Amino acid sequence: MENVKKSYWFASEDIEVLKGINLKIDYGDFVAIMGTSGSGKTTLLNLIGCLDVPSSGKYIFSNSDVLSLTDDELSAIRSEHIGFVFQNFYLLPYINVFENVYLPSIYDSRNTDNRKNRAVELLKLVGIEDRMKFKPAQLSGGQQQRAAIARALINDPELLLADEPTGQLDSKTSKEIMSIISGMHDRGKTVIVVTHDENIANYASRIIRIQDGIVVEQTDKKKF
Predict the structure, then answer these.
(1) What is the separation of C-alpha 97 from the centre of its chain, rounded to a whole number of angstroms?
(2) Which of 98, 144, 151, 171 is deepest in the core (most CB within 10 A)?
(3) Is the pLDDT of residue 88 over 70?
């Protein structure tokens, strides 16, 4: 990212949320983005994940200039290269866990063979294969987040983005979820986590602090 800015039109006023972000994230990084509420960290994550585009500046994702891409091209990037994990899980309530995990794969034209087997393997990986026929409402918060992680991984993305992934979980379950996410990094995924919790940020090897729409500090550290 070079001098990336993002503004939103709200109440007859142009509100600048990001005010010139310069940032480089390499394949294989494990990054935590920290900041208080309203600092712009979620907006930054949305831009990184191509859920939104900058108002100005340059953002290169996998050798593509995001601002030059069509909606269909952005959608393809999200489907094929990026997995998303959210604080609120966003599992579909009317289908079971297996179907929630499997669903994104039907929109990916690659690797059409063994999709169902992959969904089962991912549910085993996150430790809830015995809950695959349950509806989300029948799961605990931690189990729902495990299902959401499996869903994020179904298309084998290179990049895993997590926005406050432990925000609704107790400390014990938070450690379990972060152990799974850290394990994905160990398997070669690039991982970016947005958090306000220093304990969660400490899983990352690099911490980026954002305040009032600008990066104020970057710290490289050894992962414990």
Answers:
(1) 19
(2) 151
(3) yes
